[in-house]
Amino acid sequence: MLNLLNKFKDPELCRNILRQIEAEVNGQFKFMEVCGTHTVAIFQSGLRSLLPENIIHLSGPGCPVCVTHESEVAAYLELAEKDVIITTFGDLMRVPGPDRKNLKNAQAEGARVKVVYSAFDALKVAMENPQDKVVFLGIGFETTAPTVAATLKIAKEQKINNFYVLSFHKLVPPALKVLLEDQDTEIDGFLLPGHVSTIIGLKPYLFLASEYQMPAVISGFEPLDILQAILLMIRQKNSGQPEVVNNYKRAVADNGNPRARQVMDEVFEITDASWRGIGTIPQSGLGLNEDYEQLDGFKALDITLRDVPPIPGCRCGDVLKGKIRPDECPLFKKACTPASPVGPCMVSTEGSCAAYFKYMV
Ligand code: SF4
User: Fold this and answer.
1) Whose CA is closest to atom 3 on ligand 1?
2) Pair 152, 267: CB distance under 8 Å
């Protein structure tokens, strides 16, 4: 396996594809790296400086922390002030909410907040603290939702009555559709997220080519994966024959992971969801279905999302829609740095602003 992976980093193979890209790219080509992991991989591998300048990289809405809406951040910060234990992935600890307060500040002021590495770890916290209400903050996309669903099934089967999930999970394909409907967004192709695709497969993306004539390639994260995907998108654009291609077959089956989707279907229902910078997207989120409403943090703890103004000056929303580069935000590297982030795109390791800061300074 290691040998196989090394092939995807092979300098000579990469140079060959780069030469083909240089020869075949025709004018400007703007492609969106939907997933933050691709953004980081492109920087880390040095591809950004090797690719021709007329290949423009746009960030996309594929960083879970970044797309978590202001109203969702405000809701869990208010919850942290109550008599509950909040369990969360570490990335959310520093995401600024209203008045730039975050979970880390709340913890310093006495809120009970525990960082966990999985939803199952959060369930263990609930089992160890039966007298407390333990709430897991469920963020992420189709990639993380199945394990949260599996944890909820265990909680229900084992009658663990003090465990709740606030589901902020989001679905990637509806967000791509919204971007394509936006007249101000110029995209020539989508580098589709490898991790999400392991769950959903090819089918949910087919509308990109059939309805929007948009080249799209599911890609892995090694340099050769990414270069091949860019070349495939350029060829589709040049030929006028867009299609959705799975170029990550060593990890992604064309039909995804049906078992994972089945577990999600048993626990979640598709709902409207609020995305930072984009707003409400119909049928783009996952809430707990009525069989799991006792474990639904929104219902059991009577939580509603209220209107919260965007963070003043932060252009995360425009970054996530590919309308500006992070370094075009007036606050980038000035008021906003990883040590003192103004917006979530500077917090998460998958955030575009954090990646630009780390690799462009
Ligand atoms: S640099 Fe900071 S303030 Fe600007 S968009 Fe990124 S996170 Fe927001």
Assistant:
1) 314
2) yes
Domain 66-171+256-300 falls in which CATH fold? Answer: Rossmann fold (3.40.50)
The residue assigned the tokens 């960083």 is 63
11-60 tens-digit pLDDT:
899 999 999 999 999 999 999 999 989 999 999 999 989 999 999 999 89
Q: Render pLDDT for 183-225 as a digit per residue (tens, 0 to 9).
A: 888 999 999 999 999 999 999 999 999 999 999 999 999 999 9
Q: What is the pTM of this model?
A: 0.94
Mutate to test the pocket of ligand 1, among 94, 276, 334, 346 (most ligand atoms within 8 A of CB): 346
- The domain limits of the chain are 66-171+256-300
Helix, strand, coil shares of the chain, percent, nearest 5, are 45, 20, 35
Q: Which atom of ligand 1 has the smallest separation from the CA of 357?
A: 1
Residues lining ligand 1, Cβ inside 6 A: 314-316, 319, 326, 329, 331-332, 336, 341-343, 345-346, 353
Give the closest residue to 236 by CA, choosing from 216, 266, 261, 262. Answer: 216
